[in-house]
Structure prediction request, 397 residues.
Amino acid sequence: MKKEIQQLARQFLADVTSYRRHLHMYPELSFQEKQTGNFITGLLSEWGVEHTTGWAGHGVVALVRGQQPGEQVAALRADMDALPILEANEVPYKSKHDGIMHACGHDVHSAALLGAVRILHSLRAHFSGTVKCIFQPGEERLPGGASIMIREGVLDHPKPASIFAQHVHPPLEAGKVGFRPGMYMASADEIYVTVTGKGGHGAMPHQCIDPVAISAQMIVSLQQLISRYSDPAIPSVLTFGKIWSEGGATNVIPNEVKLEGTFRTMNETWRMEAHQRMKEIAEALAQSMGGTCTFDIHKGYPVLVNDEALTQRARTRAEEYLGTENVVELPIRLTAEDFAYFSGELPACFYRLGTGNPNKGITASVHTNRFDIDESALETGMGLMAWLAIQELEAAY
Prediction:
């Protein structure tokens, strides 16, 4: 079976590369992936693969049933949406939608899953069970397409026993993959603060309540949330990336200052405690300096925890498929992923697909306007997904 999957992955590489390039040229923002969904359903229909549409807007779910479908089900997931970034790469498949780019590799994820579907469909006479293939919209935008699809019943009828997803990883060379069992990625919350004071002339601050000074003190004080309240064993980060006011100038104190930031951590209990402490610190500090503030936290994606047993099995199987030298252990990351919603519902494994190639100058990070991949990674991506799904099904019988 391994050799057959590897041969099919090589055979389908040119086609899957064309799928990836098409998706890259026509990126769509979160929850706007209509043409992306149509492209995917067109291929599934052409191949005769059973599928449904309309999930969380434009999501697609395909079912590849083995010759003896049985009750065992494994799931594979890929996200579909792009980012509001103007692409700077000069390549034949450069984005044709100005200001929108597949800078996080979701074109790669969807193309690789299409390749995996094609491999599984070709081998359906040789395995038992069903593989549910989930093409998910809206990963880059709250509340996250995963949460919506779950509410809509994507994990029912049939219900998978496990789920896998992969994500591009430029620091890792194409042909390699990485795994980490247990706690892997952080929760992600958005913070929106409005500090209100009393504006006036910059030369007469004693007649004002300066929201700029309050905001500056607030940012410094809130940083102590991590250094003085958080357990050092729990990775956490608090970052304010945007500060602005309307009406302020070199000699004008504004009435109001707005702050925007993110709070991330790897522990859900501490996450909730930190939310409360942040609000208390900010409101008390503003009041002590004569102002007021509103402190809004938009709760984002939860902590992503890879099932220990499933991820260990997946790593062993990846070593069998790719060779031990091509499988690495990953460090914890404080980035976030809405796949965490799936990992909260059933045993899940979220792993990294190497896409970099320093010799070709392919090193740019995700979420940058120069991001690209060594497309040989698509062969690894589609083949490994198919291999993991079939191995998981076979282990159940």
Notes: The radius of gyration is 24 Å. The mean pLDDT is 96.
